[in-house]
Amino acid sequence: MEIIKGGVTAAKGFEAASTAAGIKYKDRTDMALIYSQAPCVAAGTFTKNVVKAAPVKWDQQVVGSGAKVQAVVVNSGIANACTGAEGFGYCKDTAVAAAKALDIPEDGVLIGSTGVIGKQMPIDKLTAGIDVLAGKKNDTLENGTEAAKAIMTTDTCEKELAAVIEVGGKQVTIGGMAKGSGMIHPNMCTMLAFVTTDAVIAKETLQKALSGDVDDTYNMISVDGDTSTNDTVILLANGLAGNPEIVYGSPEYEEFALALHAINEYLAKKIAGDGEGATALFEVKAVGCESVEQAKTLAKSIVCSNLTKTAIAGHDANWGRILCAMGYSGAQFDPEKVDLFFESKAGKIQIIENGTAVDYSEAEATKILSEPEVTAIADVKMGAEEAVAWGCDLTHGYIEINADYRS
């Protein structure tokens, strides 16, 4: 596997475009298009929130039907969530407009929306934007990057990555883009991720690859403990690489899954580190566990602890908050056997051994915790399993952004 520059246009046959439709923002692009020159098999995973936005319901319907997909229309600014029959009708209108502009079937259009909940979509602006997108689309890496920028809300940077593998002597490329900064919590989040590949692979196999990876990537991140109404991860495969079909369980499948994981993990970590108001990516490793389930439970409990996240913001090695979060996680362990370490580019330090503090330097700990990427390692000494979760520190900036999000 080779990591390369690019995003959703890196794979053969995929194009993208962006435009400023004025849906909410007045000074930036807010619509993006992903288009495939050939129909794609589609896989998807969606929010576990009972309250699902209209585009989530639309995409679940399209992906579940087995229809071949050729386009994804995404807007930022308005989430089209809690908008009733009218909001779902706007998804239909969007698909109709895209089908006409791109000369593709209506059931070949997926939709993504992110932004304010409860507002109706200005459908005239949206459909006008689709016509602009159809005229601007191309397969350049630059257009892929601009599409990644157009789907941002409170994100501070675009998020994209691509990778190449070889299957049967053919080059297969996977590329993706994502957005997410707030309302981020395991079971996915206010995040949209779109991954494209030119691999020849069956729909069922593609879905297995995506579903099998989401639990270890997007479902292991948290910014604020809120599971969104809109989270969607879409994976499209158009088969233009011309490789022998990737079969589930084969060595080629394992290599494809590894590359997909690299893309998804990178995007997930970029979302976590770009949390609203954040100054640091906070990584938590639970090691020495007797099961993966126990490890995931412990890691997510620590990374979701607001008290721990404020300690990270203050560069304070307040280890009691971490042990506390482990204790209420629901996972069973012996607190008198726990070792805890902090690690960053500035070094590694042990904070507790067998559940009690060691004689460590507060100054050294503060130095380690002052880096933009910080890791906490909790060892419960019960086995060989481990898991990783990602979040960020919690600062005053989070309150400032969300106190006036709708204005």
Q: Can you characterise this structure?
A:
This protein has 407 residues and is an alpha+beta fold. The chain folds into two domains: 2-254 and 263-269, 4-Layer Sandwich (L-amino peptidase D-ALA esterase/amidase); 281-403, ArgJ beta chain, C-terminal domain (Ubiquitin-like (UB roll)). Helices cover 33% and strands 28% of the residues. It has eleven helices and 15 strands. The strands form two sheets. Strands 1, 2, 3, 4, 5, 6, 7, 8 and 9 form a nine-stranded mixed beta sheet that branches. It has a six-stranded mixed beta sheet with strand order 13-12-11-14-10-15. InterPro entries: Arg_biosynth_ArgJ, ArgJ-like_dom_sf, ArgJ_beta_C. GO terms for molecular function: L-glutamate N-acetyltransferase activity; L-glutamate N-acetyltransferase activity, acting on acetyl-L-ornithine as donor.
Short structural summary:
Catalyzes two activities which are involved in the cyclic version of arginine biosynthesis: the synthesis of N-acetylglutamate from glutamate and acetyl-CoA as the acetyl donor, and of ornithine by transacetylation between N(2)-acetylornithine and glutamate. The protein is of the alpha+beta class.
Oligomeric state: single chain
Structural class: alpha+beta
Number of domains: 2
CATH superfamily of the largest domain: L-amino peptidase D-ALA esterase/amidase
Examine the secondary-structure arrangement and name the CATH architecture of the largest domain: 4-Layer Sandwich
Strand fraction: 25-35%
